[in-house]
TrEMBL record:
Localization annotation: Cytoplasm
UniProt cross-references to Pfam families, sorted A to Z: I-set
Recorded superkingdom: Eukaryota
InterPro entries named among the record's database cross-references: Ig-like_dom, Ig-like_dom_sf, Ig-like_fold, Ig_I-set, Ig_sub, Ig_sub2, Obscurin/Obscurin-like_Reg
PROSITE patterns in UniProt: IG_LIKE (PS50835)
Record key words, sorted: Cytoplasm, Disulfide bond, Phosphoprotein
Occurrences of domain Ig-like (ranges): 11-95, 129-235
Protein name listed in UniProt: Ig-like domain-containing protein
Organism this protein belongs to: Poecilia mexicana
Length: 238
């Protein structure tokens, strides 16, 4: 363990604890804390997993400050991070902003701010006075507003195909976000990559290739993201 080389009897403590982060997907997240001893050895963890420096994570020390930099933040990076010394530790949550944003509005929120956002509905929690749609009651001090945005949409939909038996069929659609995860389905069945089906992504394009088409391959095929889907028909010519 890195602790065995400590040369002081005084425990290393945190003069400034980690703070919770909210980072937009694709950006960098930086956790920072201040130690009582300059250059003290620390471990960074996500949950129980010890993090190692590399392309994803950078660990830096500047005097009493120690930093963890998380590059190219993704949804899977959300969670609890810990900076740990021999005698103490500090933890904080990373929240990744992608699909939803949270705003806090009050009765004093300028009307021009609310008018900038369309299709908003406010909802009362239990024991709060009723809030009319798109209006805050004067008796309500604060309300949480959640806005759903569609990040993973299809900008070009799948088109119907007519393919000769024995040939290959290639369905193609364009995503609003390159690399966004998709499911390809035939009917309700999720397709798996293999000899029969190939799934490819090239920047914003995602493709399903159906090899050696047979009569029983005819039917409806769907490209599905978390937010949207597109369906097209495959017709097999004998």
């Amino acid at each position: 363990m890195f602790f065995k080389n400590a040369t002081t009897a005084l425990p290393v403590t945190f003069k400034q604890e980690l703070q919770r982060l909210s980072v937009k997907e694709g950006e960098c997240g930086v956790f920072c804390c201040e130690l009582s001893k300059s250059g003290a050895a620390v471990e960074w963890r996500k949950g129980r997993v010890i993090l190692k420096p590399g392309e994803k994570y950078e660990m830096k020390q500047e005097g009493h400050l120690t930093k963890l930099i998380i590059n190219n933040v993704e949804e899977s990076d959300a969670g609890k991070y810990t900076c740990k010394t021999k005698h103490s530790q500090s933890s904080a949550e990373l929240r990744v902003r992608g699909e939803s944003e949270i705003f806090m509005a009050s009765k004093n929120t300028p009307g021009r701010f609310l008018s900038m956002i369309s299709n908003i509905t406010f909802f009362c929690e239990i024991d709060l006075p009723c809030i009319q749609q798109n209006h805050l009651s004067a008796d309500v001090k604060e309300v949480s507003l959640k806005i759903k945005t569609k990040n993973h949409t299809l900008t070009k939909e799948v088109e119907n195909l007519e393919v000769k038996e024995g040939d290959s069929a290639a369905f193609c659609c364009e995503l609003s976000k390159p690399g966004a995860p998709v499911d390809w389905r035939k009917g309700r069945v999720i397709l798996k990559a293999g000899y029969k089906y190939e799934m490819k992504q090239e920047r914003g394009l995602t493709k399903l290739i159906v090899n050696n088409v047979e009569e029983n391959d005819a039917g409806k095929y769907t490209c599905k993201t978390e937010d949207s889907q597109s369906t097209a028909e495959l017709t097999v010519k004998g």
